[in-house]
Amino acid sequence: MDRLKVLIVEDEEVMQLLWRAEIEEKVGDGGEVLQAFTKEEGDLLLDAHAPDIAVMVVDACVLGKVPNTIPLVEKARKLLGEQRPIIAVSGKEEFQRMLAAAGCNYLCSQKCDPLCPEKQQLPQMVADRLLDLSDVHL
């Protein structure tokens, strides 16, 4: 694996843009961000890039108000194995628990807010996971 790939499944374009910029800034040329705005796009990118995905980020509710990405997380866990990070993103603890039960092994309770530094949690979490994996050589 030359560049560590991050798959982000998130329907909010603003969040995708913020996360991509922050992640790319933190990891430089060592990482590549794949973006899916729907569950279907996430499924296609997962199928196409599973061997190269180092970290996956999944919003609990994509194009909806209920947690609808559970089947995608279950599939990702099977394809990515037990060790690769899958980060659940939700402000609701109940949704986080559901995604954790489906296979997410990291939880992020906040989305990014460019005006609030303490809400920059996700990009740093991704960068930390990539740093951990860069020595492992998946």
Strand order of the largest sheet: 2-1-3-4-5
Inertia-based shape: globular
**Main structural class:** alpha/beta
**Low-pLDDT segments, ≥5 res:** none
Number of strands: 5
Distance between the termini: 7 Å
Number of contiguous helices = 5
Strand content: 15-25%
Arithmetic mean of pLDDT: 86
Textual characterization of the structure:
This protein is α/β, with parallel strands linked by helices. It is built from five helices and five strands. Strands 2-1-3-4-5 form a five-stranded parallel β-sheet, sandwiched between helices. Helix 3 links the parallel strand 3 (53-59) and strand 4.
Short description:
By secondary structure, this protein is α/β, with parallel strands linked by helices. It has helices spanning 13-27, 39-49, 70-80, 93-102, 121-134; strands spanning 4-9, 31-36, 53-59, 86-89, 106-108. The protein has a 5-stranded parallel sheet with strand order 2-1-3-4-5, sandwiched between helices.
Give the helices and strands, then pairings.
Layout: E1 4-9, H1 13-27, E2 31-36, H2 39-49, E3 53-59, H3 70-80, E4 86-89, H4 93-102, E5 106-108, H5 121-134
Helix pairs in contact: 1-5
Please supply descriptive tags for the structure shown above.
alpha/beta; 44% helix; 5 strands; 138 residues; single chain; 5-stranded parallel beta sheet
